[in-house]
Amino acid sequence: MRKALSGALVLAFVAVMGGSGLAAEDKDTEALLSKLKDSKRSLADGIKQAGQEDGYVVSAKFEMDGEDLSLSVYTAKEGRETDAEHNTLMELSGDPTKDSWTPKKEVFTDKEHIARASMHLTLMQLGDRSLVDVIKIAQARQSGFVYSANPVVRSGRPVVDVLVATPDNKSVHLIVDILNGNVAESA
């Protein structure tokens, strides 16, 4: 009886903690979605600017930096043809609500960011589509404001997780296959 009760308490605790984590995540997403209208540029605009100035773009997203909206773009400075080991992986991030986007630049030196950016570069190297191409594909499927494009592996395929803010302030998750351009909506 005592084991069953303690097991039930553990399950209840996990459910409550997991639920509160989801609630916090939903609140963060709501805050981000409410700020996107203040941006003076699209994700594609940030990608194009970063690509002209700092190499091949491997991922991009709008995110909250405290209470402020930020546009974050990961690049591979030496370009698409250079592998991650011989590339300079970096982030450009800054306020997209200003008349000009003047991001600060950070070359990655920590394991977590290097690993993530390396994976993004490698996945994008597998196909012929740029992130701007992926965004255009997603926009043809779902109207709204694309606010995130991050390469990942799903079911053994290189894809880009694309998040779109709809006109009614909801978030839609699309999965765009890097190799064939097929689009699926996440369940």
Distance between the termini: 39 Å
Shape: globular
User: Which class of secondary structure composition applies to the elements?
Assistant: alpha+beta
Taking the sheet with the most strands, its summary is: 8 strands, antiparallel
What average pLDDT do the residues reach?
Answer: 89
Query: What share of the residues lie within helices?
Result: 25-40%
- H-E order: HHEEEEHHEEEE
Estimate what percentage of residues fall within beta strands.
Answer: 25-35%
The overall strand count is 8
Low-pLDDT residue spans? 1-22
Strand order, sheet with most strands = 4-3-2-1-5-6-7-8
How many distinct helices? 4
Radius of gyration: 19 Å
The total number of structural domains is 1
Describe the structure.
This protein has one domain. The protein is of the alpha+beta class and 187 residues long. Residues 1-22 have low confidence and may be disordered. It has helices at 2-35, 43-54, 111-125, 131-141; strands at residues 56-65, 68-76, 89-94, 104-107, 145-154, 157-165, 171-177, 183-185. Strands 4-3-2-1-5-6-7-8 form an eight-stranded antiparallel β-sheet, with helices on both faces.
Feature tags:
single chain, 187 residues, 8-stranded antiparallel beta sheet, 8 strands
